[in-house]
Design goal:
1 helix; six-stranded mixed sheet
Amino acid sequence: MASGSSRRVLFVCGDDVGRRLVLNVDDRRLVGEVKEKVRCALVLGPDEALAGSEHLERNVLSLYYAGAVLDDSWRFADLGIPPGAQVTLLNALKATS
């Protein structure tokens, strides 16, 4: 595979703490791969089922750019995100069925 280019992207956590992270993102990387790098760097919990009193909740990290959720299977090269752009991330608990 040919060498891909890289771009610096600012990831901003949409929580009260306001954590920020700048990463060089390889265009060939999938959103899901980059999400795991962000998760590790910001020490966020994994997408996992958490035991609740009456139901299970799932800890889910989502990346947003220009108001749209970025799908884990998309490649950064196909998204048109320019260098220096801000990507918002939300770490939320969602109820499972």
